[in-house]
Amino acid sequence: MPDHIELLTLIILILCGVMLLTNLIYYFFFFARLAFHKEIYATKEAEPVSVIICAKNEIKNLKKHIYSVLDQVYPEFQVVIVNDCSWDESDDFLKELETQYSNVKIVTIIEQEKYEHGKKFALTLGIKAAKYDLLLLTDADCSPSSNNWLYNMQNNFNDKKNIVLGYGAYAKKKGLLNRLIRYDTFHNSMQFLSFAKAGIPYMGVGRNLAYRKDLFFNVKGFASHNHLLSGDDDLFINEVANRQNTVIEIKPVAFTISEPKTTFGGWFKQKKRHTTTGKHYKSNHKNLLGIYYVANLIFYLSLATLIVLQFDWRIILGTYLFRLIIQVWIFGKVMSRLKELDLIWMIPFLDIFFLLFYPILAASNLISKPKIWK
């Protein structure tokens, strides 16, 4: 083997080793915290809660899911539903719902041609209309996984903890698309929940998120990022969350279950909207997430390069399997906690798929950006 090939092989080997070590640091320092998370089962006096739901032309989802919210076993709670310029039958349904349930509050936004708004405006109105200080957010296409969802989410609040990050799962359906959606959701959730456990909270999901009303108004709501389409959940949490005020809740009874997209195009558009906010995260958060992605990408590229250079296949295979075994072990533990264990066999394939998918998504956002929140 020529000297320059040997030198290149040595450089690639060192690079591969560094990337492997970086992967292991993330697995054991961050993700293992979630894999071996110990639940808190202490109880406290139930605090009144306002559940906030924004709905835009969601009549079918409201009819299907709203009763699971209203049927929560809880002494005192309010459900605020913001009817955001709907032109379907939502208005009639919500008016009837308000007459049937004394704890339902409907906020209606009338569409104006000269003024367009996103979800942040609707959510702000819902929060202003909330009767109680403790807010629990979810979406119109979500159902709590149990009638103890509300209790378990609020049970985490105390004098220091003002933000609760929950897990928002997607319903299990047949087909590859459903597995892509659920694996992506699992992987993103594993990251933000693990980082929060490590004292570095950087986002939450509006499908299952709780915080105090005064926390919202202390930072003037969404004022710092109101010009952006998305970010009512992740950018807000990125701004206000810290080591002291944030806690996670991952008991299965506290999950929410959402309706997944049924077409790849619909999911792709949803992902485009969700990924527009990442560049606005705090620098340390972007760096940590970026290093994780780059380490994964370069690890695979370095192995592929070693194959091209005809390096010893046994070392290449052994290195890959060593990382995979640890990855499957840690990821599998988290999947078990989040009730996504059926995805474990797809880890080797989807790990590579999403390394390729996200650059395509980023390029698509450079060409055309989403313009509406729903």
Descriptive tags:
single chain, 374 residues, alpha/beta, Spore Coat Polysaccharide Biosynthesis Protein SpsA, Chain A, 2 domains, 7-stranded mixed β-sheet, 12 helices, 10 strands, 51% helix
Topology of this protein?
Layout: H1 3-35, E1 49-55, H2 59-70, E2 77-84, H3 90-100, E3 104-109, H4 119-129, E4 134-139, E5 142-144, H5 149-154, E6 163-166, E7 168-170, H6 176-197, E8 209-212, H7 213-218, H8 234-240, E9 246-249, E10 256-258, H9 264-274, H10 283-308, H11 313-337, H12 347-367
Parallel strand pairs: 1-2, 1-4, 2-3, 6-9, 7-10
Antiparallel strand pairs: 4-8, 5-10, 6-8
* String of helices and strands: HEHEHEHEEHEEHEHHEEHHHH
The CATH architecture of the largest domain can be given as: Alpha-Beta Complex
Q: Going across the major beta sheet, what is the strand order?
A: 3-2-1-4-8-6-9
What is the typical, i.e. mean, pLDDT?
92
Count structural domains.
2
Q: State the CATH superfamily name of the largest domain.
A: Spore Coat Polysaccharide Biosynthesis Protein SpsA, Chain A
Binned strand content: 5-15%
Structural class by secondary-structure content: alpha/beta
Report the biggest beta sheet as strand number plus sense, adding barrel if it closes.
7 strands, mixed
> What would you call the shape?
elongated
CATH structural class of the largest domain: Alpha Beta
Helix content: 40-55%
DSSP strand tally: 10
Please mark out the parts with pLDDT under 50 across 5 or more consecutive residues, or reply none.
none
Distance between the termini: 59 Å
What name does the CATH topology of the largest domain carry? Spore Coat Polysaccharide Biosynthesis Protein SpsA, Chain A
Number of H- or I-type helical stretches: 12
Rg, nearest Å: 22 Å
